[in-house]
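Recall that a protein's primary structure is simply its ordered list of amino acids. Everything else, from secondary elements to tertiary packing, is in principle encoded there. The following example makes that idea concrete.
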Amino acid sequence: MTAASQPVDISILVPVMNEAGNIRPLIDEICSVFDGRRFEIIYIDDASNDATADELAAALIAVPQLRVLRHAHRAGQSAAIRSGLLQANGDLIGVLDGDGQNVPADFPALEAAVIAASKGGQMVMAAGIRQLRDDSPMRLVASRGAKWVRASLLADTHPDSGCGIKILPRALFLQLPFFNHMHRFMPSLVRRNGGIVLGVPVAHRPRIAGTSKYRILDRLLVGVSDVLGVMWLLRRAPMQGAVDEINAPRRAPKRAAGKTVTGKTVTGKTAAGKKMTSAKKKSAKKKDVTKTVKKASDKPKSAKGNAR
């Protein structure tokens, strides 16, 4: 059985683009967290042009739980996550950024929160809330501004929608509308589809290699159109609620071969015998009628003979 078809409890998706130096340390941390369990790690390389592909190829040899997907053309973080989701085998999906700033050791707390709140069929996403963020002052200011916009226009009450680490059921994830940058609006999209979002405190740490792929001005300009698009989606949220399949009613159990009539049981054999007796009686009546007709027809002939 290949790694792509093995049954697993959880799939961890890690989108990366030019993250050489961060690959193997993060993989080893994930393996340590889920040691002894059935899991898979799916790295999605968004057309990196550094040593990311080489580091992933080397890790594939050493880590049996690792799978690697690669985009032919750069498509963005949301597209990378979507590619991994469509190939994942786990009923639960974990996501974290590939830069190493999210801490895999926070996954058990996120998973426990989802399992505890999912009783009764409720769809739940547990999303991280970064404690003591290790970012520059400018990025922190931009993050606060984005949070205010989401809260004001999208009614997004999650304290840290931009946090990359989260866990949710694959079935719920697949129901969410896909578009570029949708990973920044996961809490709003989950609530749109009738799910609930739980915030779980998580750690945050500096990079050990590479640089951020996002600039503050880029996020601001793109974010405006994204927010307008999400507002449009929220107004057209699905309204059907839970969907249940109705099965055909069960038929009453068949009775035994014998039938009870006025306290007596008539077997199939006796009933058949009665039918045969009735048929014989009818046949006998027909014969009697035939004989009577013949006798009646003979009398006139006899009378003519006497007259002669």
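Residues 3-235 form a domain with the Spore Coat Polysaccharide Biosynthesis Protein SpsA; Chain A fold (CATH 3.90.550.10). The beta strands are 10-16, 39-45, 66-70, 92-95, 124-130, 166-169, 196-202, 259-261, 264-266.
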